[in-house]
Amino acid sequence: MLASKKFWSMSVMAVALALGYLIGHSDGKSGREIFKSANASNNPTISPVEPRPNDVYFPNTEHLAPDEMRVIACGTGMPTTRAAQAAACFLVELGNGDKFLFDLGSGSAERISSLQIPYDFLDKVFIGHLHSDHFGSLGELFIGGALMGRQKPLRVWGPTGPVPELGTAYAVEKMQEMYAPLVGKSVAA
Hints:
By secondary structure, the protein is α/β, with parallel strands linked by helices. The chain has five helices and five strands, in the order αβββαβααβα.
């Protein structure tokens, strides 16, 4: 009995919705507006399905004039990366073609790679300090460049330490030693 009541209730509701739709479209138009907005002349009558320009920026889809600069946050997170957020990394692109990376925190190499910029143009890196949230992906950029045919050396600037073993030059030297069997001698940092 309960199933039968449910069936008839649903049937009556479906018929009512269908009648409402037909009545609303009986004038041959796309339907009747129930609510009018203050600026109805600017609102489309149906939901737009075409892409709207300038609502979203996709890297490498916008011209950069010679006197302009673009800054892309490739990572803004903490030292412990999350799937949706890499640690600190900013790409600065100048209109003359120069590109600079400021910090290269853990997880940011994936974001940089997705920009599809040839690695020969990603050769200048500035490191704020030697924690993983600021240079954790340096090795990935180094290896990525070697695998993708970087012909220029990867140049890295960063802090010196109270002793040479705690500075950027030493960290980069040891990174090169670690990756030497994979990279070979053709690309030096």
